[in-house]
Design brief:
It is a single chain. The longest helix is centred in the N-terminal third of the chain and has 11 residues, at 14-24. The chain has a single domain (2-163), classed as Rossmann fold (3-Layer(aba) Sandwich). It is an alpha/beta fold. It has helices spanning 14-24, 49-59, 62-65, 79-89, 101-109, 127-135, 146-154, 157-163, and strands at residues 2-7, 29-34, 68-72, 95-97, 113-115. It contains eight helices and five strands. The chain has a five-stranded parallel sheet, with helices on both faces.
């Protein structure tokens, strides 16, 4: 059975890693959709789809890498067209993992099984919070996997966030 997990992963953090592990406990293969892949770099989307893919792949071990595939999913203004476009990008899947109400609604209407993801420390483990902590020079390193930490340090994420 194949599953789909869509997220922006701005940046990829420990909550995302737990979501990935949860989804993988339910399926054989997991397609990861990097949402907003067509958006320019901006305050709420400071990392490109390629950079987010790099963060994910550098943060997971080989046993997980063999069970996932990453796809870029652009935003559409029309939700129905968005779902149809996803079907042209992503191989067949049987289940969607999401906590996003719109995604849940759209896929439920298509009679696709939708499973919520248990949140892990949602107030702390959010991309918005981590980006704010980076900007404020506060502790953020323990909230992301080592691969993401290395990426954010090497690319001078604080400088990028300040300039957006």
């Amino acid at each position: 059975m194949n599953g789909l997990l869509i997220g922006r992963f701005q940046p990829f953090h420990l909550g995302h890693l737990e979501a990935l592990r949860f989804a993988l406990s339910k399926v054989d293969k997991l397609w990861i959709g990097l949402g907003s892949s067509n958006k320019p770099l901006q305050k709420n989307n400071p990392f490109s789809a390629e950079e987010r893919k790099e963060m994910i792949l550098s943060s997971i071990d080989d046993s997980i890498k063999n069970k996932i595939e990453i796809f870029f999913i652009p935003d559409f203004e029309n939700h129905k067209k968005w779902v149809k476009h996803i079907d042209t990008i992503i191989p067949k899947f049987d289940i969607v993992f999401t906590n996003d109400e719109m995604t849940k609604h759209l896929y439920s209407k298509l009679e696709t099984k939708v499973l919520p993801i248990p949140f892990t420390d949602r107030n702390i483990l959010s991309g918005t919070n981590i980006r704010d902590l980076i900007l404020k020079d506060q502790k953020w390193e323990e909230l992301v996997p080592d691969g993401t930490k290395k990426f954010l340090n090497e690319t001078n994420a604080k400088h990028r966030l300040k300039n957006l």
